[in-house]
Amino acid sequence: MAKLEGKLATMFDSVGNFFSGSDHIPWCDGDVVAGCEREVSEAEKGSSDELMKECLLRLSWALVHSRRPEDVQRGIAMLEASLPGTSNQLQLREKLYLLAVGHYRSGEFSRSRELVERCLRIAPDWRQALTLKKTIEDRVTKDGVIGIGIAATAVGLIAGGIAAAASASRRK
């Protein structure tokens, strides 16, 4: 009995997650973004290039994980600007992943999928990227199912309206 209850709870949780749109990508609040901005500001006052790059990467992480769309867009812009100068494969993988998160948060799912697939070409077993890819695919599937439901409802309403109009004209 307990086994069945556990399976039912898991099923209800996954159905709830499906309709609520929750995912496993962390969010970041404004305090963290502000802290990272202070770090960058302090690093600009004479720190090494390596420390500055680390601070900028942390800020990019915070921005693309922010709940504020303008932060996410800023993070995307920072990451895209830094990509051309990235020769280290590990850093490239990190930046591509963060870009994929930013585009996911912006609702640009096809761009996000493309970027996460580039990450997986660099590190095929990277669990974070695999989880993000599944999250993107689940979201696209969910949006498709909801879209089909909306279209079916609209067709039903139109058909119902036509039937009602036809019925009314026969009564006259």
TrEMBL record:
A Pfam family hit: Fis1_TPR_C
Gene3D superfamilies: Tetratricopeptide repeat domain
Membrane topology: Single-pass membrane protein
Chain ranges passing through the membrane: 144-166
GO biological process: autophagy of mitochondrion; mitochondrial fission; peroxisome fission
Location(s) in or outside the cell: Mitochondrion outer membrane; Peroxisome membrane
Keywords: Membrane, Mitochondrion, Mitochondrion outer membrane, Peroxisome biogenesis, Transmembrane, Transmembrane helix
Domain of life: Eukaryota
Keyword Transport attached: no
GO cellular component, one term: peroxisomal membrane
Family assignment from sequence similarity: Belongs to the FIS1 family.
Record's function text: Component of the peroxisomal and mitochondrial division machineries. Plays a role in promoting the fission of mitochondria and peroxisomes.
Domain notes from UniProt: The C-terminus is necessary for mitochondrial or peroxisomal targeting, while the N-terminus is necessary for mitochondrial or peroxisomal fission.
Identification of the protein by name: Mitochondrial fission 1 protein
Protein source organism: Quillaja saponaria (Soap bark tree)
